[in-house]
């Protein structure tokens, strides 16, 4: 088992009550823990009073980030599965494995004495969970190991790490501290995050505030992301080209606007294996731009007309005898906050386009949606046609909310088109993990 210079430094110096690694993704922070630190700490305290605990964002993230990597090294004979009591047997000892996103999830250990705790993705925890943990490490031999990626500089964890009066060993990582990563992988990852807040945090490992343009690379040069979808490719194209038959999946996002915003429709296409993500067509309907108030019947009509335009422009027709199917126009995802409008849209779409599936949007974390889109843009996997003028404007104008100090938040005060961004993100949020893996 080969370790980097940085990882060996951690093993030697992590002798404090709190031992935390903060820094870039894929920099080797977690590997030294799963390969050496966690088994060593647990075995070192075997037979002593107190609980062993692993805390992560969720039990599934603990399995993915901690237990499975340990199992690959030590086999399932030493690294067990999490049972119905939230306990996994590790190196012959019982270890509680609990999600730290909500206080209620760790109630089972509230009041218990903890001899060892490992923390995964600490900056994503609920602050109250961390506060509770501090009072539970009450043995002379109690200690904590953990790792995190940086967030904003006023984050509660950053304030804890900056407290010189506490017994803390803090080790900082950049992506360049991992000598085992292929150089081309590091180069590509840097390229994906270049010019964004995520470069400072996830490449350089800095606690930086989110400010300015969110999609800076796009805002600086939207033409670089322009593409055309054609029946046949041209010999000397001005823009990136795709054949219509290459678009294997078209889905439509719909975000309902309020009094100060508009209803936004966005059609998104995928090429095979999620390789390319294409904004095919977008439209924003503002009440002030119509001659009458937009009621549910008018909205149904406008949206179905938009679907027909998408089908006419980008749909691939397959005939089965007398039956015609547009095989690549598949689903609609609508804003689940508006149940009545959503039900009306579903009924209208199913009546006019009976093969199409209409579902509520998942509405995943906005930050996760932003980060996925930023990486797609940086990796050269995101494209937009001339039929997406409202979506292009939305990406160009999107900025961070500078008035919010304690979290990263997209500005949503009516001055920018958040609705079109939401509508687009509804079409990719269910495949974000696959999209990022493909990137």
From TrEMBL:
Listed Pfam families: Terminase_6N (PF03237)
InterPro entries, sorted: P-loop_NTPase (IPR027417)
Protein name: Phage terminase large subunit
Species for this entry: Dorea ammoniilytica
């Amino acid at each position: 088992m080969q370790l980097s210079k940085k990882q060996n430094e951690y093993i030697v110096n992590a002798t404090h009550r709190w031992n935390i690694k903060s820094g870039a993704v894929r920099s080797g922070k977690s590997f030294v823990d799963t390969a050496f630190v966690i088994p060593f700490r647990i075995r070192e305290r075997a037979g002593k009073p107190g609980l062993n605990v692993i805390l992560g964002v969720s039990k599934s993230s603990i399995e993915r980030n901690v237990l499975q990597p340990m199992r690959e090294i030590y086999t399932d004979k030493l690294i067990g599965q999490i049972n119905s009591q939230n306990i996994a047997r590790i190196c012959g000892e019982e270890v509680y494995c609990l999600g730290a996103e909500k206080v209620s999830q760790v109630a089972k250990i509230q009041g218990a004495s903890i001899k060892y705790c490992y923390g995964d993705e600490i900056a994503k925890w609920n602050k109250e969970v961390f506060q509770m943990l501090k009072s539970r490490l009450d043995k002379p031999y109690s200690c904590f190991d953990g790792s995190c990626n940086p967030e904003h500089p006023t984050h509660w964890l950053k304030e804890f790490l900056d407290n010189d009066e506490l017994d803390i060993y803090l080790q900082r990582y950049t992506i360049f501290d991992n000598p085992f990563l292929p150089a081309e992988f590091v180069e590509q990852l840097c390229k994906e995050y270049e010019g964004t807040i995520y470069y400072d945090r996830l490449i350089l490992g800095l606690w930086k505030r989110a400010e300015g343009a969110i999609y800076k690379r796009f805002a600086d040069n939207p033409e670089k992301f322009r593409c055309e979808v054609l029946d046949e490719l041209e010999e000397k194209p001005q823009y990136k080209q795709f054949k219509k038959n290459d678009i294997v999946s078209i889905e439509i996002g719909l975000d309902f606007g309020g009094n100060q915003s508009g209803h936004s429709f966005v059609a998104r296409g995928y090429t095979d294996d999620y390789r390319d993500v294409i904004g095919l067509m977008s439209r924003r309907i503002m009440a002030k731009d119509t001659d009458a108030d937009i009621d549910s019947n008018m909205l149904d009509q406008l949206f179905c007309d938009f679907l027909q335009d998408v089908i006419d422009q980008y749909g691939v027709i397959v005939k089965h005898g007398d039956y015609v199917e547009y095989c690549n126009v598949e689903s609609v995802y609508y804003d689940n906050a508006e149940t009545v409008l959503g039900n009306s849209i579903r009924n209208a779409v199913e009546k006019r386009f009976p093969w199409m599936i209409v579902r509520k949007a998942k509405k995943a974390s906005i930050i996760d949606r932003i980060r996925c889109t930023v990486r797609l843009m940086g990796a050269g996997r995101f494209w937009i046609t001339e039929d997406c003028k409202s979506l292009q404007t939305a990406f160009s104008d999107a900025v961070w909310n500078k008035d919010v100090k304690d979290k990263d938040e997209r500005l949503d005060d009516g001055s920018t088109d958040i609705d079109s961004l939401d509508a687009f993100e509804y079409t990719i949020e269910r495949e974000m993990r696959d999209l990022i893996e493909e990137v």
